[in-house]
Design goal:
6 helices, 28% helix, globular, Rossmann fold, binds S-adenosylmethionine, alpha/beta, 23% strand
Amino acid sequence: MEKCAHVLEETPESKKGSWLAEYPGHKVLWAELGCGKGRFTLETAQQNPEALICAVERVPDAMVIGMERVCEAEVTNVRFLRVDAVRLEEFFGEGELQRIYINFCDPWLPKRHHKRRLTAPSFLALYKKLLASGGEIHFKTDNVDLYEWSLEQFTACGWELREVTRDLHENGPVGVMTDYEAKFYSQGVKINRCVAVRPE
Ligand SMILES: C[S@@+](CC[C@H](N)C(=O)[O-])C[C@H]1O[C@@H](n2cnc3c(N)ncnc32)[C@H](O)[C@@H]1O
């Protein structure tokens, strides 16, 4: 963690509303919720140098691996936030984000825990506040129950769904894979993906 401290955002609340001014040279601000070990974070950052990516993760042991990967690759457009996504409003201003990635979030299977899912209505209301007009959520999961439920929540909350698929890699690998996704793909597990556009 110490070796890579320069990619860790110790006081993200101090950047609220001014991320792109604090880190000039980037055109858009994206957040990845639950970045885990950061395979997706690194490759997405490398492919999109115009984007500043805030990688949010509440488990430091996973995040430190992502930090090391970003440091080793000498990639400069990723900031790591060691926080719970439920606190996003403390770190980002209204309409400050252009995109949010939610990849393989915890499925919280018992019904009584559905409110904890990162696609639950309370989270969608939070993302609506923090995303700019036309802003998008890019969502991937292997979990069919979570996916179908999430599609219902997006629709019920007024989000427009695009690129809805229940087998993303049907015809070969598509896009940047996460650590979990690469493992599932190698096991032949189908990957669900959609893009949800912020309601006006
Ligand atoms: C199943 S793992 C997937 C990791 C990575 N996205 C991937 O696809 O390889 C889910 C990750 O999300 C993190 N996470 C879950 N809920 C979170 C929350 N509310 N805030 C921040 N991180 C969260 C977990 O700690 C874990 O690292």
